[in-house]
Write the structure tokens for this entry.
Amino acid sequence: MPVTHKEAGMPSGWGVEGATAPADDADANTVSPSQFIAAHDGVWARRLVADAVSGAIAMADVSATDLSVSIKANRRYYWRFTGLYVTAATATAIRLSINGPTTPTRVNHWANVVVTIATLIPTWNAGAANAIAYDAPVIASTAGPGAVVCPFLYEGIIENGANAGTLRPRFASEIASSSVTIQRGAVLQVIELDN
């Protein structure tokens, strides 16, 4: 059943006034009402419905079901992933990355992560010719908030190549066996720039 942007609790002026989640979406961007926030003309928003925990240094999907958006070949997209997180220790940092269709033309990403109430760590990660491999994490910090809930903002731009596929945020702990938790309610927004 379609859910309107107002029923999903989105404020007016967000840019999707009156948008509905399609009942049957050909590009596989239909989600359940519990995951849905908004979808309208090349703009998607998804919500993490349960905490995501990682105690590994290898990158993994935050959620393969809640936070997935299908993107088209040969299009440009902007994404923003934001939420709250905690770490098992103040010496454990969160690492963030993105995964998507094979052989993108260009991927840039950056993050602002609060590690204490008084410390914001802005991080930019771009490789040669502004193209990076998927799973090249941002956040080289060795600090985390411990049990204090802190926000993060991770965003970027992808110029997709000839392959359509799924865009998903990924994360990991900076230290093996020391967990990082992204709390439920985190939001992924994706905007198609060629729309």
Notes: The first strand starts at residue 36 and ends at 40. Confidence is low (pLDDT under 50) at residues 1-31, 126-130. The chain has no helices and 13 strands. The two ends are 25 Å apart (CA to CA).
